[in-house]
From TrEMBL:
<dbReference type="InterPro" id="IPR013320">
    <property type="entry name" value="ConA-like_dom_sf"/>
</dbReference>
<keyword id="KW-0732">Signal</keyword>
<feature type="signal peptide">
    <location>
        <begin position="1"/>
        <end position="29"/>
    </location>
</feature>
<protein>
    <submittedName>
        <fullName>Glycoside hydrolase family 32 protein</fullName>
    </submittedName>
</protein>
<dbReference type="Pfam" id="PF00251">
    <property type="entry name" value="Glyco_hydro_32N"/>
</dbReference>
<keyword id="KW-0378">Hydrolase</keyword>
<feature type="domain" description="Glycosyl hydrolase family 32 N-terminal">
    <location>
        <begin position="42"/>
        <end position="376"/>
    </location>
</feature>
<keyword id="KW-0326">Glycosidase</keyword>
<comment type="similarity">
    <text>Belongs to the glycosyl hydrolase 32 family.</text>
</comment>
<dbReference type="InterPro" id="IPR013148">
    <property type="entry name" value="Glyco_hydro_32_N"/>
</dbReference>
<dbReference type="InterPro" id="IPR001362">
    <property type="entry name" value="Glyco_hydro_32"/>
</dbReference>
<dbReference type="InterPro" id="IPR023296">
    <property type="entry name" value="Glyco_hydro_beta-prop_sf"/>
</dbReference>
<dbReference type="GO" id="GO:0016787">
    <property type="term" value="F:hydrolase activity"/>
</dbReference>
């Protein structure tokens, strides 16, 4: 579950606005099942609102993955107490998903200290450690609001007798297994949520989000928990999990996840993933990771600085496959994130560019799944999982002298290094696209900036990239955010680390609600968009100081079918 975050609007690079096309039709999403903001090939909530992913768990009986995500009855007021439950779906390939069902009810059983909203947590398979649960059954640890005390945050546990479809057997007499008010739990006595539970050295560990720190607890039966470090505060502080990043105003930290990963050289490390923001470092709310190991008590000890898992503003509440037993290392795990940002996604989204319609009642999509690998240099590489494209088209050897559907163009606008030339300008394309872009220079390293403009009606996502130093900017505008509670929000710029290359390969995935960029060094950038139009224009411009820049383009339609 999320609290309001702050986003920093910066940008030393601002992409060009070289024209727009298409006029969107007004769409009024007046029901919780409206298709106005339903993605074509990305997982989207079946109704209402959704955000955090809870778990991605391999189901050995069904030979598929169970996915769980946080859901509310309506996007009008997604945080309304009593409206929040878990939805469940399954997938074998992360392209096709089964119909969604409610897995944890929004309202707990009538008992003292039960919950009235189910928030973020973890699903794992009982290895025999959890008291009162059959071995092999799925168990959910989840946070939420307590029903009878005004809504404080605590952690509950329930198990499934139908192979992970629902969690109806609540343990501990429906009372919390971690309570924010205990003298060894949350130090601010407010935050106690997002439990991440793993097996480690013959016991269980739980990391919970407690404002500016993670509380770390241990258990031998899954019901009774104590401090993992019996002689200390048993907290992982901001200076640890955000090491190397200016952490001023970075609270709250959320959505921890721990995995053991194996590098190509055979060595293993623990990786701590989490949600945070670093506004004074120019970083919006997003998903981070840091690599290290656990100390003798199970507290995370970093060996690197923290880094963004996805550079964009809209990859949050992420979760991961991989073993919940930290003695098992994975070479590759899978990740998906919520395409959203609490600074604007939850503050009223209209269904028309002029923002005259009512706020949508259905909103909630997820990124394409990514294969996540830990490199020998302790950085993470992300590779998207997409299906086979249809209606494939190729544009090869496109140069400024032979643009597609355009002519040479120049601009005196700021933030450019010289003349801007059109390479590709294809209007009226479907929104569900995969683009593979191969930029190259016939005379040496690629010189001059690359500009990609994606127009969806009057809304845009603009990409401005300088291959000489690796800096790029992704800037977007959605008219649907006008007249909302916070209005328009700009993106920040990030260093892709890809520079001085003779060739540059970019993959761009577009859908109604999102644009995802994937770079050759394994980084990614995800940005949300909110237009309801089914068509887009795709434009590529370049500077060409050496008169040798070219691009090969392959585009394909993607779908769930």
């Amino acid at each position: 579950m999320k609290l309001t975050n702050t986003i920093l609007s910066t940008g030393a690079l601002v992409a060009l606005g070289l024209g727009m096309a298409l006029t969107t039709n007004t769409v009024h999403a007046d029901s919780v099942t409206s298709t106005a903001h339903e993605s074509i090939y990305h997982l989207t909530t079946k109704d209402g609102w959704s955000n955090d992913l809870q778990s991605i768990v391999w189901n050995s009986k069904g030979k598929y993955y169970d996915l769980y995500f946080l859901h509310s009855k309506t996007a009008d007021d997604p945080n309304e107490a009593g409206n929040q439950d878990w939805l469940h779906t399954t997938t074998k390939d992360f392209i096709h998903f089964t119909p969604q069902n409610s897995a944890i009810k929004a309202d707990g059983p009538e008992a003292p200290y039960t919950w009235k909203s189910a928030w973020t947590g973890t699903v794992l398979v009982n290895d025999g450690s959890i008291k009162g649960v059959p071995k092999g059954a799925q168990v959910a640890y989840f946070s939420g609001l307590e029903k009878h005390d005004g809504g404080s945050q605590n952690v509950w546990v329930a198990w499934s007798s139908d192979n992970g479809r629902t969690f109806s057997h609540v343990l501990n007499n429906s009372a919390p297994v971690i309570d924010h008010s205990w003298n060894f739990t949350s130090q601010n006595k407010v935050d106690e949520r997002d439990p991440a539970v793993v097996y480690w050295h013959g016991k269980m560990l739980m990391y919970t989000a407690e404002g500016s720190e993670f509380g770390v607890y241990q258990s031998h039966d899954g019901i009774h928990w104590s401090k993992a470090d019996p002689n200390g505060a048993s907290k992982v502080g901001m200076g640890t999990y955000l090491r190397g990043i200016n952490s001023q105003d970075s609270t709250p930290v959320e959505c921890p996840a721990l995995r053991t990963m194996k590098m190509p050289n055979g060595k293993t490390k623990q990786v701590l993933f989490f949600g945070a923001k670093a506004p004074h470092a120019g970083q919006t709310t997003g998903t981070y990771y840091i690599v290290g190991h656990l100390d003798n008590n199970g507290l995370f000890a970093p060996e690197t600085d923290a880094k963004r898992l996805d550079q964009g503003s809209d990859y949050y509440g992420a979760n991961f496959s991989g073993s919940s037993d930290l003695s098992n290392a994975s070479r590759t795990i899978k990740s998906m994130g919520w395409i959203g940002n609490w600074n604007y996604t939850a503050n009223g989204v209209h269904n028309d560019e002029v923002a005259n319609s009512e706020f949508t009642k259905r909103l909630g999509s997820y990124s394409v799944a990514r294969n996540i690998e830990l490199n020998n240099d302790l950085t993470i590489k992300s590779t998207p999982i997409v299906g086979h494209g249809k209606d494939i088209k190729h544009y090869n050897n496109v140069s400024k002298d032979h643009p597609i559907n355009g002519a040479n163009a120049s601009s005196n606008k700021p933030f450019t290094n010289g003349l801007i030339h059109n390479l590709l300008d294809v209007p009226n394309l479907s929104i569900n696209k995969a683009y593979n872009l191969h930029f190259y220079n016939t005379k040496g390293n690629y010189k001059g900036r690359i500009y990609i403009d994606i127009w969806q009606g009057g809304d845009y996502v603009r990409f401005n990239y300088d291959p000489s130093n690796g800096w790029y900017n992704v800037k977007s505008r959605s008219g649907e955010l006008d007249k909302g509670r916070n209005g328009q929000i700009a993106s920040s710029y990030y260093n892709s680390g890809v520079m001085n290359q003779k060739t540059i390969n970019l993959k761009v995935l577009t859908d109604k609600n999102s644009v995802e960029f994937f770079f050759p060094n394994g980084q990614s950038y995800t940005v949300a968009r909110f237009n309801t139009n089914q068509k887009q224009d795709f434009k590529i411009f370049t500077e060409d100081p050496t008169n040798g820049n070219k691009v090969d383009v392959t585009q394909a339609n993607l779908s769930k079918n």
